[in-house]
Amino acid sequence: MKNTIAERILDFLKDYPPFNLIQKDTLLEIAKKVEIHYFEKDQIIFSQNDTPHEHFYIVNEGVIRLYRFAEGKKHIVDICDEGDLFGLRPLIMKENYLMGAAANEESIIYAIPIHLFNDIILNFPKVSQFLIASFATNTRDPFSEKHKGKLFANIKAIKKVENSFIETQSAKYTKNPITCSANITIQEAAIIMTKNVINSIVIANNNIPIGIITDKDIRTKIGTGLFKITDTVETIMASPVVTFPENITVAEAQIARLKHKVSHLCITKDGTNTSELVGILSEHDLNLIQGNNPLLLIKEIKQAKDAETLKYIRSKAAELTKGYIEQEIPIYFVTKVISEINTAITKSAIELSIQEIGTKPPVNYSWFAVGSQGRKEQLLMTDQDNALVFENVTESEYENVKAYFLKLATKVTEKLNIVGFDYCPANIMASNPKWCLSIDEWKQQFKEWIKDPIPEKILLSIIFYDFELIYGNKELYNKMATSVLKYIKKNQIFLSFLGKVTLDNPPPLGFFKQFLVEQDGENKDNFDIKSRAIRPLVDAARIFSLYHGLQINNTIARYKKLMEVEPQNKDLFESCSNAFKILLTFRTSQGLANNDSGKFVDINSLSKADRLKLKSCFNPIKNVQEALKIRFKTTQIG
């Protein structure tokens, strides 16, 4: 007999993470054990410091408020609406509730037994990954020293997300391959291959692969007269086929081709030749993948003779980024690879420009990137931000030397624009005389910014505190970096001004967990993920790093180092790092999907899972901004 209530619960759960990651039959078993609870307005579900229940909860209807008592006052911490989970962390961490929960209005919630969910975490790795990603961005960080080893400690099979990806690149194969039956003629098969522009056809019985013929078979067996074109395909097909499962890596595919001396591999549901055919992996497919190997791309960049070639290579790098994101490769690794490609492209643009000018640079110089490229976080084709420093020269030489470097910079920025890096709208480029300066001029510029920190100057200068050497004399670059840190050390009040300006960014969420979106303009009703979510984390990492005199530009690397120099705030900085990784991954995937910078997100187009993932990253932003206010006394700055 059908369990109607369980079916209704299942129908609800399947639309919300992490239940949408669980197969239907398993989810139905969970639904059968779910308890349905009704709460009137202001009725308590559990109180702060209570022993945890044997269930965690998901909101079916209504709104639940989470609150915490501190210093004798009740503070609302979060608002949970339809599809939101709560009360799970204490069950996993085996500690009392850190906050209370009460109905904000009449509400129905589903109570799910934790003992059932432990098995789910074990058998569905994506569920554990979702929970880790969600927990890692909350105030109570499960990867902190206090909680180290506790998260899913009763399930030995679970590993941290950062160690769960396959280190070798997954092979992309052709899906829905063309098949035929074993009793058709070779001529009929050749006509099908020609019509579909393919170089192989799989012989299948009820979509189970039993053989394969390729262009080579037709050349060597039919063209040579060994068989007739009217013979059936089974007379010349290679059988049994070599099969692999869907997650085959490039390395495995190459080894299989060499071992079995075949040009095509059949991809089946379970990797055997008795299960359903889902794809075909050819030598051509592998060559395309190898063509997107980062080492080969950099080699091609070095051999490029013009900007158009660099543009083509950079487009392949975009495909590489997309592949990494789809494979859930850690974003820190992705940024390192793509940054090296971007750096190689810039170097090539500089060398090509010097060749065009026809004379070598008159003195030593350094080309450096600022902003996101300076932080090695420019994964998408955003606008270019760069500058140039040249060594000090006599007054009589200055005009000619600067003219040379402005000419060089103009040619370089033109080439980068052709590649796809738009001109900076604010003209923060080395082709601008304001940002093509001698070492003494740059030192003086930074000194003025730090000594006279008015908001306009601070906003302009922020981008230059993330500068990275791309090409040229390393000594000049080091002199600049050293002088900046020295000036800041002498003028610590500057960090208070810097903090105040960066804290002026509006928060990502309103009180009732609504995304704060743009109110007008072409991006009306869209969420600015760069300004409201990513930038606050970047700004905080920068200010704390400048405070400690750290010559590190990358945001993730900054937070990692801050965990070392401020062990008392390790949990805070680790949660910020985790939130930044999730946000940067999200922005990159959005930008790749929409072929834009990924800055603005249409919240209404997102799934509930993606909205929850974004919201889970906002607590660290609030916490680190509170830490900035306290550390640098920004409220005292007029």
Short description:
The protein has 638 residues and is α+β, with helices and mostly antiparallel strands. The N and C termini lie far apart (72 Å).
Explain the overall architecture.
The protein has a four-stranded antiparallel β-sheet. A four-stranded antiparallel β-sheet has the order 2-7-4-5, with no helix packed on it. The chain has a four-stranded mixed β-sheet with strand order 9-15-14-13. Helix content is 47%, strand content 15%. The protein has four domains: 4-167, Jelly Rolls, CATH 2.60.120; 174-290, CBS-domain (Roll), CATH 3.10.580; 294-491, Beta Polymerase, domain 2, CATH 3.30.460; 496-636, Up-down Bundle (Four Helix Bundle (Hemerythrin (Met), subunit A)). With 638 residues, it is α+β, with helices and mostly antiparallel strands.
DSSP helix fraction: 40-55%
| Fraction in beta strands | 5-15%
CATH domain topology of the largest domain: Beta Polymerase, domain 2
Radius of gyration: 29 Å
CATH architectural designation of the largest domain = 2-Layer Sandwich
Query: Regarding CATH, which class of the largest domain?
Result: Alpha Beta
Tell me the CATH superfamily of the largest domain: Beta Polymerase, domain 2
Structural class of the helix and strand makeup? alpha+beta
How many beta-strand runs?
Answer: 21
Could you tell me how far the N terminus lies from the C terminus, measured between alpha carbons in angstroms?
72 Å
Number of helices: 23
Contiguous uncertain segments of 5+ residues: 136-168
